[in-house]
Amino acid sequence: MIELDGLRRTYRAKGRSVVAVDGVSLSVRAGEVFGVVGRSGAGKSTLLRCVNLLERPDEGSVTVDGVELTALGGARLRAARQRTGMVHQHFALLSSRTAAGNVAFALEVMGVPRAERARRVAELLDLVGLTDRADAYPAQLSGGQKQRVGIARALAGRPKVLLSDEATSALDPETTRSILGLLRDLNQRLGLTILLITHEMDVVKRLCDSVAVMRDGRVTEAGPVTELIARPGSELAAELFPLGPPPALPDTTVVDVTVTGSGSSFVADLARRFDLDVQIVNGTVEQLAGGRAGRLRLALPGDADRTAPAVAHLRAAGLTVEVPA
Q1: Is the pLDDT of residue 37 over 70?
Q2: What architecture is domain 241-322?
Q3: How many Cβ atoms sit within 10 Å of the Cβ of residue 88?
Q4: For residue range 274-285, what is the model confidence (pLDDT) as tens digits?
Q5: CA dist list (Å): 177 to 74, 86, 171, 223
Q6: How large is the angle between the packed helices 143-154 and 99-109, nearest 10 degrees?
Q7: What confidence tens digit (pLDDT) does each residue in 204-239 have?
Q8: pLDDT digit string (tens) for 55-114?
Q9: Alpha helices, H only, the chain
Q10: Where is the chain membrane-spanning (predicted)?
Q11: Cβ–Cβ under 8 Å, residues 294 and 288
């Protein structure tokens, strides 16, 4: 659905060239929720703006639903953009227009006739649960309601792709959960492909099927969430399930076990099979959008030689086992 090939975007700042996106290639499948995560300055927002060519990359190509946007210009590009909706961090609503008026504005720009606009606005506000707030102005709406208006407006052109720029970062936790639930519902009901950027790990846990991790303008790892978590040394696993520095436990081998697709029943099996007093130091296993996953830090009695058979058993069972430094 979305193919990014070798994207590069640079800026001039204080007389020098700054690379914001450095050779990024990504593939987003139709119907999935794909997150791009990274710290501030990693290049996430620039990458997202390149996807709908709000910023044109210096190098590389952007293809959405089989159409190479980077090969288009003028009216053809504007028409192609209508198949992609955009949800903004700070809502970007027109303060002089009601909720209905903000949604209608997008349809006016598209040249939709008045009668069709009214019908479509009512349909969209119902879709996001705001029928009773159609006549309210942005100043009369809560943050979550404003974002629902923004989502309705983004869906006005019946897009196949929805881009989300930190859509929940300005919201409180309860409202965030509500908006994430709405986005997942829209993804499933409308078959929307959603590409979002975020620095919030709860968004990844609750919403994302796949993820790319960005650092200094580059993608350091990308793929389905549960597959990334299972990779040794995964940055995503460390961010989603931080375990902190290992404890100093004498006569003990500490190991970090990454779990995907199951709970922690292997701990009891390990204790029985090898007659070990296994201690769970910390960690968690949770239900994510992409499947059940987590990390557990275990303390196994004995040195590395004594615990080697137990560690080998865990690995043979398909678990990722790492010894923390």
Answers
A1: yes
A2: 2-Layer Sandwich (3.30)
A3: 17
A4: 988 999 999 998
A5: 39, 19, 9, 24
A6: 20
A7: 999 999 999 999 999 999 999 999 998 999 999 999
A8: 999 999 999 999 999 999 898 998 888 889 999 888 889 999 999 999 999 999 989 999
A9: 44-51, 74-81, 99-109, 114-127, 143-154, 173-190, 201-207, 225-229, 235-240, 266-274, 304-316
A10: none
A11: no
CATH no. for 2-224: 3.40.50.300
In angstroms, the CA 209 to CA 33 distance is 5
Residue 304: name the closest of 267, 251, 259, 266 by CA.
Answer: 251
Residues 6+ apart with CB under 8 A from 130: 99, 145, 148, 149, 152
CB atoms within 10 A of CB 160: 18
Residue 142: alpha-carbon gap to chain centroid? 24
Structure pTM? 0.90
Chain region(s) in the chain for CATH 3.40.50.300: 2-224
158 — pLDDT class (breaks 50, 70, 90): very high
Six-digit token pair at 34?
């794909």
Environment class of 177 (CB within 10 Å of its CB; exposed 0-12, middle 13-18, buried 19+): middle
CA 230 to chain CA mean position, Å: 18
- Encoded tokens for 282: 């910390």
Q: Residue 130 corresponds to which tokens in the numbers above? A: 């705001």
Question: What's the rounded Cα separation, in Å, for the pair 202 and 173?
Answer: 10
